[in-house]
Structures are given as C-alpha cells and as structure tokens.
Amino acid sequence: MKIDEILPKTGLVYSEKSKLPEVMCKPKIMPIKSMTLDKIERMHKEAIKASQEAAMEAKRLEEHGPGGAEGATVVDEGADAKEY
C-alpha cells in the first residue's frame, strides 16, 4: 500500500532538525511490586491469619466444650461452686 505525500499549496511548511545532541536521563528506579499488589498480599496474609485463629478457636472449643478451658468455675443454682 502506498500513501501519497500531500503538501499544502499555500502557507508555510516547517521542517526542523535539531542540532542539540540527545540527552540520556538517569534510569529511574521502579518498585518491583506495585502498592496495589502489596496491599492485596497484606490482605491475603491477614485473611490466612484470621482463618488459622478461627480454626484454633474451633479446635479449642471441640476439646474443652462450650464452657471454656479446663479449671473453669461452674456455679449451679443452690449449690456450691465446683472446680472442674
């Protein structure tokens, strides 16, 4: 495919060639991880930690029952406190 060049018949045509040398800038240090990726990873770690804590709590309840840990004091109506 060939594209024909069209030049205006009136007006000025500018063509500039720079006489200045190209300037190379210092390389910029870019973060390896974006802030968004870092935030997502932090949220993921927090979710895993919360899940593990919930699993540990469920295991504790399974072992000791809904009353709590061993050595808890239970009070019955009209009776003395008992140590379990």
Model description:
- The protein is mainly alpha-helical.
- Helix content is 36%, strand content 5%.
- It has one helix at 35-64, and strands spanning 73-74, 82-83.
- A two-stranded antiparallel ribbon has the order 1-2.
- A hairpin with a 7-residue loop joins β1 (73-74) and β2 (82-83).
- The longest helix is centred in the middle third of the chain and has 30 residues, at 35-64.
- The mean pLDDT is 77.
Task: Briefly say what this structure is.
The protein has 1 helix and 2 strands. It is mainly α and 84 residues long. The model has no long low-confidence stretch (mean pLDDT 77).
Search tags:
1 helix, rod-shaped, mainly alpha, two-stranded antiparallel ribbon, 84 residues, 36% helix, 2 strands
Mean pLDDT: 77
Distance between the termini: 93 Å
Shape: rod-shaped
Give me the secondary-structure category: mainly alpha
Strand adjacency order, main sheet: 1-2
Report the C-alpha radius of gyration, rounded. 38 Å
Quaternary structure classification: single chain
User: Number of DSSP helices?
Assistant: 1
- Could you tell me the strand content as a percent range? under 5%
Unreliable spans are: none
The helix/strand order is: HEE
State the major sheet. 2 strands, antiparallel
Number of strands: 2
Amount of helix: 25-40%
